Amino acid sequence: MTARYRVSPVDQVRGRVRVPGDKSISHRSLMLGGIASGTTEVSGFLASADCLATLEAQRQMGVQVEQLSPTQLRVHGVGARGLAAPARELDMGNAGTAIRLFMGLLAGQPFASTLTGDESLRRRPMERVAGPLRLMGAQILTQEGKPPVKILPVPTLHAVDYVLPMASAQVKSAVLLAALRAEGTTKVTEPAPTRDHTERMLEAFGVQLRREAGQVWMAGGQSLTAAPVSVPGDFSSAAFFIVAGVIAGLPGFTIENVGINPTRTGLLDILRLMGADIRVHPRNEAGTEPIADIEVRASSLKGIQVPEELVPLSIDEFPILFIAAACASGETLVTGAEELRVKESDRLAVMAEGLTRLGIVNELLPDGIRIQGGRFTGGTIDSHGDHRVAMSFSVASLRCDGDIVVEDVENVGTSFPGFVEVAQAAGLQVYPA
Ligand code: S3P
Fold first, then answer.
1. Phi, psi of 409 (to 5 degrees)
2. Helix, strand or coil, per DSSP, at residue 273
């Protein structure tokens, strides 16, 4: 039997909580730290299953990583040409970011490597990354577009002028990582802004980039110099508590030390359009990523049409946004979000199924969903092994008439170890069952 949560109705969250470190930045700290010269001190690291897969892969390629505490790492960089051939397949588990960024990092290496992952990852599209890397001269084989991904050694890569067909930070980052080893200047153009953690960290490691709206240029052959990385709390983990607070934060509820990179915080804009009371208190901390405490209060939410330009800026937050929409008055319409179909699960279909199970009227669209506000009934929902779906339905207990059982929750540990404890500290009644 798979692990499950039992979640009982409550009508309030309160106090102050902290969430673990940012997943995207933690992956990148290991990857860039590994190919830098010098020692990268990482604080606030997310020791989740996904990031530990990246850590293990780096170790297999000869990067020494000391874990000084669960959240503190010392990465001994091997330099631009120092990675060693891995002795076996590199297993990325559930981590889409790890497999796609490693494809870029390994595309121009003088050794062969194979990247694979769990059942969910082996269903996810990899050609979106393999395609541009092949244009750069890489030799990459996929299994009908999916993992395992085999990367063959090539003598050299060359720069590319690549226009992304979809808004994807993973594809952009993979091309940039490959471009570090390519001859010439690579240019990447994105159809809409996506998270820019790779660009920020490359700059912090001394790489020269030119950035203009939606475009980035980078000359190949540049080397990285180690620099400390301070990982903020993950906005995508904070999102569950931000929504909990706007549903039922009485008198108020604060999530501390959250990364508020503007390429990540589209959820705040969407919730404000719905009428949410959200106050952002910036922290004065030096670093490449902005950080704040986010204070939220119970608000009367109303349904809206979500502006499509906010979709890439809140791409991981849709499962929890759908819970907010179910708690709003009237109808919420999301369109232009077809990328949600190729995440850890088909998040449009899986969320629609769960909402229906719990009595929320909705209509699944090819690229989005229409949700009618209401109250959740109790019931059992299947998260389909998707961590963010599992955590989202835990928050539904704030507007629920009976217990909710959430099935298949093991993967919560891929992004948010300790979720149950933080949820309980906030006042939610979530229990492993
Ligand atoms: C990520 C990019 C996004 C996001 C994922 C993390 C990253 O994926 O959904 O959780 O760290 O670059 P896409 O690039 O597929 O949109």
1. -100, 5
2. helix
Distances in whole angstroms, Cα of residue 215 to Cα of each of 157, 172, 190, 224, 355: 21, 10, 6, 21, 38
Ligand 1 atom nearest residue 316's Cα: 9
State which of 24, 164, 170, 316 you would mutate to test the pocket of ligand 1, scoring each by most atoms of that ligand within 8 A of its C-beta: 170
Looking at 189, 218, 247, which one is the last position of a domain?
218
- Residue 389 counted as domain residue: yes
Supply the pTM of this predicted model: 0.98
Q: Name 43's bridge partners.
A: 230
Q: Does 157 share its domain with 240?
A: no
Which ligand 1 atom is the nearest neighbour of the CA of 173?
Answer: 12
Q: Does residue 237 lie within any of the structural domains?
A: yes
- Structural domain count, the chain: 2
Rg of the chain over Cα atoms, rounded to whole angstroms, equals 21
Residue 74 to residue 85: CA distance in whole angstroms: 22
pLDDT in tens, 186-236: 999 999 999 999 999 999 999 999 999 899 999 999 999 999 999 999 999
Active-site position among 316, 382, 386, 408: 316
Whether residues 388 and 318 fall in one domain: yes
Does position 138 have pLDDT exceeding 70, yes or no?
yes
Task: Check if 316 is active-site.
Answer: yes
Contacts for 282 with CB less than 8 Å, ≥ 6 apart = 260, 290, 291, 292
Q: How far is the CA of 172 from the centre of ligand 1 (A)?
A: 10
Residues 280 and 178 in one domain: no
Query: Best of 168, 196, 342 to mutate for ligand 1, by most ligand atoms within 8 A of CB?
Result: 168
DSSP state of 232: P
- Rounded average pLDDT over 121-149: 98
Check if 97 has its Cβ closer than 6 Å to any atom of ligand 1. Answer: yes
CATH of the domain at 413: 3.65.10.10
Asked, for residue 223, whether it belongs to a domain, the answer is no
Residue 190 alpha carbon to ligand 1 centre in Å: 14
Residue 172 Cβ < 6 Å to ligand 1: no
Task: State pLDDT tens for residues 282-311.
Answer: 997 768 999 999 999 999 999 999 999 999
Domain end marker among 163, 185, 218? 218
Is residue 165 located within the same domain as residue 262? no
Say which residue the tokens 């003598």 belong to.
Answer: 155
Report which of 337, 326, 315 is spatially closest to residue 267, judged by C-alpha positions: 315
Range of the domain at 104: 23-218
